[in-house]
Specification:
Blueprint lengths: L7 H12 L4 H12 L5 H13 L5 H18 L3 H12 L8 H17 L3 H14 L4 H17 L3 H14 L5 H17 L3 H14 L4 H15 L5 H14 L7 H17 L3 H14 L5 H16 L3 H12 L27 H12 L4 H14 L3 H14 L4 H19 L2 H13 L25
Length: 462
């Protein structure tokens, strides 16, 4: 297993900050990064080779180029000999001029090359020797420990690998954020293979909390940890995981698709554990906050959850009917005999102070202006405070620029929240029409039958 296939894409963070003014070296390194894939690796090699040979480029970037070249040879092209030559070329520069993390990687990377050759004992010795000779920063030390753990895991020593990674995370807290995140992912895998389900889930959650809004990390968690939470013996672990995901979720709502996937993950865990009361509550929240594109699936999930919980189709059918017609019923006219009551109005969330604190913290970090108002609106929606969401969306619409994307995003969100609060899709449509045509309606004439009012005003704080 290669835990480091993406590692090189993040070392460039430091480079970008340092060379932004120079432009050219960074652009060339970035071009190499994009090309360092099996189909275009030969082109990446050419980019790195030209940069390393270019004496007009400061040494620090040429050193970085050497380690990236070694990475491309070892991990993409599976050419250990040329990888070693790239390391040797990097060592020939004045290493005091290099970026400390990249200099450390030059010293440590021979261990990674040995891993690709399945020389695991040699890889462990090489990594340990690099540590003993003195690495310059926590990042290099953490990476060395990763290579040791990877070698142990490759030999089937998963418990030992997990112990190495746990110790490294505790000892090197100042390592680069991506390296910490990757170590946590590796720790989750090692614990899972060692039969330590709680350790696997805990490390996976720590990676999720750190790498906010990364679909790859969340999908990995779903793939590797959700099966563990289905085990009969892991009921308490599943409940604790749901609690933690609820606390992480507020920091993800700037990415609606990601937040929806995390909310779906919560629902999945609860359904797997047959915790139907909580699953209903979370499925209802998913229905209330999801995008229009995901609405059909959210309704289906909520109805299926009710069917499982109740053993009949009563509440499930009520939800399906309400979702189809709204509170006004089939005739679309409020106040008539076919009006429908909200089918799940009696559902109340149990107190969760940590979740509330997470929402408060996320609200405190929103930026001023329309973007901040839009972010607050999404937070209030997930916090099940739609009336406050409406007020923030009203402010966001007033302040956003005259550009199609932000206007459409705000209008779409407002339509969804208005429909949720009123229970009437026609109210949401009225708002959409009002935004499109204004108070005079389609005919653009005041005092005619198609005049419109802004339904949002009725729901703003008095």
């Amino acid at each position: 297993m290669n835990w480091h296939i993406r590692q090189w894409t993040f070392v460039m963070t430091g480079v970008a900050v340092c060379v932004q003014a120079l432009g050219n070296p960074h652009q060339r390194l970035a071009q190499g990064q994009k090309l360092a894939r099996p189909a275009t690796a030969a082109q990446a090699v050419k980019v790195y080779e030209e940069l390393i040979a270019d004496e007009t480029v400061p040494q620090r970037y040429r050193i970085t180029g050497c380690w990236l070249l070694a990475h491309t040879y070892a991990n993409v092209l599976r050419d250990p000999d040329n990888a070693r030559r790239a390391i040797q070329r990097g060592m020939a520069f004045d290493l005091s001029q290099g970026i400390p993390a990249d200099v450390d990687r030059l010293h440590v990377f021979p261990a990674r090359i040995l891993v690709t050759e399945r020389k695991y004992d040699e890889a462990i010795k090489t990594a340990k020797d690099a540590i003993q000779k003195g690495l310059r920063c926590d990042t290099g030390k953490l990476v060395a420990e990763q290579f040791i753990a990877e070698s142990l895991a490759a030999q089937g020593k998963h418990a030992d690998a997990a112990a190495v990674l746990e110790k490294a995370l505790a000892e090197f807290p100042e390592a680069a954020a991506n390296d910490i995140m990757q170590t946590r992912c590796a720790l989750s895998v090692a614990c899972r293979r060692a039969g330590r389900d709680e350790g696997a889930v805990s490390a996976g959650l720590a990676a999720l909390a750190q790498e906010i809004s990364s679909p790859a990390i969340l999908n990995r968690f779903r793939r590797e940890c959700l099966p563990l939470l289905k085990k009969e013996a892991n009921g308490e672990l599943a409940v604790a995981t749901v609690k933690r995901l609820r606390e992480i979720l507020p920091s993800t709502v700037d990415s609606p698709e990601y937040a929806e996937l995390m909310q779906t993950t919560i629902v999945t865990i609860l359904l797997d554990r047959k915790l139907y009361d909580e699953a209903i509550m979370e499925s209802k929240l998913l229905f209330d906050v999801c995008s229009a594109d995901a609405l059909t699936e959210a309704v289906s999930t909520l109805a299926a959850t009710l069917k499982k919980a109740d053993g009949n189709m009563g509440r499930a059918n009520a939800v399906l009917e309400y979702a189809g017609t709204g509170a006004a019923g089939a005739d679309g006219i409020a106040g008539t005999n076919d009006d429908l009551p909200p089918p799940l109005a009696d559902i109340q969330r149990a107190p969760h102070p940590e979740r509330d604190a997470a929402f408060q913290e996320a609200l405190s970090k929103t930026e001023p202006g329309w973007r901040g108002s839009l972010a607050k609106a999404m937070l209030y929606r997930y916090w099940e405070k739609p009336e406050r969401a409406i007020a923030e969306l009203h402010s966001a619409f007033a302040d956003c620029p005259m550009q199609a994307e932000p206007i459409q995003t705000i209008v779409d969100a407002t339509v969804r929240v208005l429909t949720q609060i009123s229970g009437n899709p026609a109210i949401g449509q009225q708002f959409a029409d009002f935004q499109r045509f204004g108070p005079n309606g389609l005919d653009r004439k005041p005092g005619t039958n198609d005049d419109l009012t802004n339904p949002v005003l009725a729901y703003l704080p008095k």
